[in-house]
Amino acid sequence: MKHFQIWILGILCLLFTACKASEEIIYMQNIIPDSSIAVSQNKGIEIQPKDMLSIMVSGKDPNITAMLNLPRISMNTSAEIKGNTSGLAYTVDKNGEINFPLLGKLKVAGLTRWELQEKIKRELQDKHILNDAIVSVEFKNFKISILGEVAKPGSYNIEGDKVTILQALSLAGDLTIYGERSNVKVIREINGERTIYSLDLRSTDLFKSGGYFLKQNDVIYVQPNSVRAGQSTVNENNLKSVGLWISITSLLMSVGVLIVNIIK
């Protein structure tokens, strides 16, 4: 009977350990199946100073469109990509403006690319320059950096203007098993001010965070969990390593004494 109690105690300890470990790594644990979750509002990435924008205008008059579009330059660097070209980009100045052909200075900071498309189209029509203009605006420098405990840390160029923290982490191959899922940092700098968001990937509350939708030049940092931190301590500090093993030995001796007492 006593042996049976010991086995039950051991199994319960293993189950408790397994459940505790799963709580540390499973995403969105409090999600309710087939339920709707409100997501933080995001109208799109807003243009900021130092952004680089590709703006292309098309219409029926090729002479006008030729003046409105920046020239395309060769990007040849090897025989494999021979013939590739890329349009030059407008750089938003410190005042949030660009100098656009035939329209002059345009205030673009604070607008989404969709809003800028409509603004340029409207001004071309109002000034009777091109009534049938079709305008396309794209970001040329939308990139994010992902650091820490992910499979593939680095900088990533993003296509489009809408990306979430989950999509970004998938680009980096997801967190490693040593990544701290309860405290992922999103570091953002706008107009010289730095904001740091802390996101808990284990909770659906991450959808409500201002860091859920990313912006250009955001930095994501995944800090190591206690297991990885403990490994670092063991590897780099021999004194603490000795202390760790002494603690483990003491714990095992205590468990052994407890088992012996149960058997008696």
Taking strands numbered 1, 2, ... along the chain, how are they ordered across the largest sheet? 9-8-12-10-11
Q: Flag low-confidence runs.
A: 9-21, 74-85
Count of extended strands: 12
Order of helices and strands: HEHEEEEEHEEEHEEEHH
Q: Helix coverage percent of residues?
A: 25-40%
Measured by DSSP, the beta-strand proportion falls in 15-25%
CATH architecture of the domain at 142-224: Roll
Shape: elongated
Tell me the structural class: alpha+beta
How would a crystallographer describe the biggest sheet? Answer: 5 strands, mixed
Query: Any idea what the CATH superfamily of the domain at 142-224 is called?
Result: Outer membrane lipoprotein wza domain like
Number of helices: 6
Estimate the mean pLDDT confidence.
79
Termini separation comes to 12 Å
Secondary structure topology:
Elements: H1 2-25, E1 52-58, H2 62-68, E2 72-74, E3 85-87, E4 90-91, E5 97-100, E6 104-107, H3 113-126, E7 134-139, E8 143-148, E9 154-157, H4 165-171, E10 184-190, E11 193-199, E12 219-222, H5 226-236, H6 238-263
Parallel strand pairs: 8-12
Antiparallel strand pairs: 1-4, 1-7, 2-3, 5-6, 8-9, 10-11, 10-12
